Amino acid sequence: MYRVDPNDHERISIPMETAEIVQSGRSLAVRLPKEFRFQGKEVLIRHFADGVLLLPIDQSRATLEAALQEFEPEFKPEREQPVAEKREAIAL
């Protein structure tokens, strides 16, 4: 899995900004800079690799897929799938 050192964000080739994380009760809130504000009151959220993706609810699946294509290939987590074990059938 490709991991980004949070202290080394300047090394990432994708231009990025920073946002402040604020504890609000038992939840975390992220204060987005003005240029990243969303319309509406809710966003879609997706956890992937070591990050989170936020999209306005009115965005289509095609927009989500296009946004994910912006990440470099090595940013996508690789997953090894072990070979399935041979098991005994369950007697009914």
Automatic annotation (TrEMBL):
InterPro entries: SpoVT-AbrB_dom, SpoVT-AbrB_sf. Residues 22-62 form the SpoVT-AbrB domain. Pfam families: MazE_antitoxin. One of its GO terms (molecular function) is DNA binding. This is SpoVT/AbrB domain protein.
